[in-house]
Amino acid sequence: MNESQLVSVKSRIDKLVQRDKNVKSRKSQARCLCLAPESSLRKDLWLQILTTTKLLPPTPISTDLRELPSSFNGYELADRKLVPTYKLSENGIINLRQSLYQISIDRPELTYFPELWPMTAVLLHYLPTNAAVASVNSLMKYQYFLAQTKFEWLQRCLSIRFLIAESKFKDLCRMYSPECVKTAFLLWIIAVWNLPFTHLVCVIDCFLVEGWKVFYRAGLVVSLLLLTPSTCRLDHLSCAQHE
């Protein structure tokens, strides 16, 4: 990134995190940002977005993570089909599992929270552990960010069908078997979370500004790709992971 591009990106970030900016303007800035995964600007961007939207306190409290009693801990709320690590280091994976284990203890009412694992894993790439945990805990306060029950999860997964029914691609589903269509509508969100990391972090940029509907936007494209003849066999997605 040359100097002029860097200035342009920083200008977009400044506009994105301004509290007095209207929502439409902030959405536009987030969608056009397209930072590389390794960009050092993303850490500051996410911290500023989370702080500006009051999802993260200016100074997150330190988090004392529990030791993992067994190799099963950290998976309490996860769906084994959706446990990507996005190439976190060995210590990063331990921090991830300790963080999730701590959340499962602090929130005993939760029994199934499949997005918690991938969201925390992504945040840990850019934020300190205490900030990542504080951010996830804040996101959990709002239903429009993360689905926290199996019913909400299935509802969101299946809602993509109605979005396609209202789109210009509504006749596409009739071209494939009902079983193939049903599988696509159940697995599209797993496919989104397993997008190449370069694309996934850009989705998260927008997610932090707009909420979960960003996944519907990405999911609409992914579902249409899953329903093409060359990719209609979806079994491999059930175990797809970014190790």
Identify the overall geometry.
globular
Please report the number of helical segments. Answer: 10
Distance between the first and last residues' Cα: 28 Å
Indicate the structural class: mainly alpha
Radius of gyration: 18 Å
Ordered list of secondary-structure elements with their pairings:
Blueprint: H1 3-16, H2 23-31, H3 41-52, H4 90-106, H5 116-126, H6 129-139, H7 150-165, H8 178-193, H9 197-210, H10 213-226
Helix pairs in contact: 1-2, 2-9, 4-5, 5-6, 7-8, 7-10, 8-10, 9-10
Domain Rab-GAP TBC: 86-221
InterPro entries: Rab-GAP-TBC_dom
Protein name: Rab-GAP TBC domain-containing protein
Q: What can you see in these coordinates?
A:
InterPro entries: Rab-GAP-TBC_dom. This is Rab-GAP TBC domain-containing protein. It comes from Cichlidogyrus casuarinus. Pfam families: RabGAP-TBC (PF00566). This protein is an all-alpha fold and 243 residues long. It has helices spanning 3-16, 23-31, 41-52, 90-106, 116-126, 129-139, 150-165, 178-193, 197-210, 213-226. It is globular and about 55 Å long. The two termini are 28 Å apart.
